[in-house]
Amino acid sequence: MTDLIEDFWQARLRGEFFPPAYYGKLSIDQAYAIQLGLIERRCAAGERQIGWKVGLTAPAIQQQFGFHEPVFGCVLDSKPSGHVFAAGELIAPGFENELCMRLRIDLSGTIDLEQARAAIDVVYPSLEIIETRGPFTEQIALALADNAQQKTVILSAPSALPADLAAIEALVSINGVSVATGTGDAVLGNPLNSIVWLAGKLGACGRRLKAGEIVMTGSFTRQFPITAGDTIETVFSGLGTVRTSMSA
User: Fold this and answer.
1) Overall fold of domain 50-246
2) pTM (two decimals)
């Protein structure tokens, strides 16, 4: 596995995020091991992991990408609501509309919904900013090795965890035009189920969730592209609004 991680690290340094030599050749377990190995190297080079993402949770997202179980990635960066990206700064960017949860205690292995709820400190209205750095749908294992499209997250002001996460509605607009609505039950029935799934999945990888980490729990709607000049806004009922934009 060390050799695989080294190959992917060298490819990344060359700007190759989906090395063609590995098309169709990685298992999902190998992909996660490469992902975690690359994150360790990035952190050793000065970045800092601040949390995790759970992806492919909503039926709309699973249908969009032809995948039928959640996936995880690592979060190494966040920006405040209102952040403006420069045109050309991101690689084939898009966004997803999510609730981000901060943990107040460590979690590991098999937990239930109530243990997940009790572990949450605060929740943020948020946007995940993704990059499509290669043929995601055709090479899902390579996409996982490349940290599951993650680039950064946009966080609005935090709130206490609501009683009924499944009923929260997200109203999504691009350039002032409504493009989608979704509710929390689109995220595995309840966004807390993403915490349950992630704790178990990381436990199987010999990892755990740590107090103070954030978890992006999955999109309420399908993924949308971002183009130069776009302004994105999502209103989460009872929680607040999160915004970002890209310069023309």
Assistant:
1) Fumarylacetoacetate hydrolase; domain 2 (3.90.850)
2) 0.95
